[in-house]
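Review form for a predicted model. The reviewer records the input and the model, then writes brief findings.
Reviewer: anonymous (R2)
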Amino acid sequence: MVQLIDPWQVKEGDFPSRGSKADVLRFCLNYAVLAPSSHNTQPWIFKLLDDRVELHADTSRNLPVVDPQRRELVISCGAALFNLRLALRRFGFEDIVELLPNPYEPSLLARITYGDRVPCTPPIERLFRAIPHRHTYRGEFDSQIVFESTIDTLQSAAAEEGAWFQPVFAAEGRAAIAHLVAEADLIQMSSKEYRAELAEWMRPNFGEDLDGIPGYALGLNSLAASVAPLWVRFHDGGATASHKDADLINRAPLLGVIGTPNDTLGDWLAAGQALSHVLLQARINGVHAGFHNQPIEVPAFRSRLATLIHRPGLPQILLRLGQTAEPRPTPRRPVDQVLQFS
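Model under review:
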């Protein structure tokens, strides 16, 4: 039996410096699969050819209730794309990317290869080293402020990928967003279909699943994690979720929105690449992040969020950021489980 490599345990020293292009691309995919994704669905497939790799959306892992347009799926794939580009640059190669290369194959999101040798710069090195330390955090952050210099860095990171990062400073704006999240929680959790979809991706603390949300990521002990999917499926916990999420947002050291000029496939990919770049820059500065996309997932609330942040364009991701001890990582499928050969 072939032993699969846990991407969280991949070592830089194992890079195939004398390998073929396919060997290099395959190794760098270990970093791509560490990207964040909705419900940790990991909705990507990579097709490896002799000299390039294709990134495809794995629509079998879509969330049809919460993400009927597959917007979050594409954003997740964009985050994986950024990690792959970053790994190539870390190992000294120019990354060459063709986005949406075939309009008749919308699931094909990008073709990636690499060109000439280029030196790895210190900023690239720092971003790369942050990849295995970026984990989503769902609890309350410490009370330390996020410095203005860090916020400037996050805004620059998003802009480099064709998106924007808008911090929310005003107390009234934060309170209004917290109210939106709470309202969206009530709407989503009142839906049996939504709860069933969420329960489908909840996992026990100790199991063999390499995707989904394990109970420990939600702050649940082993017993609670084992019964949580059944509880969520048949119990409307909207009131509890809305109070908890509103409190988390109001107490967060920093609240920010990643957005794009428009709402096309290209914008979603840009949002995903910006998301990964922003989160890695945050880690360099000692900051973790949690997601609160409920008011973006409820269509009627998305325009209200856009109005609250006073920024032209469309909100794609709502983030809560702050400092905490490094969370335990959620599982990842190894590269061999998401790789196809052409």
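Findings: The two ends are 24 Å apart (CA to CA).
Further findings: The first helix runs from residue 21 to 32.
Recommendation: see findings above.
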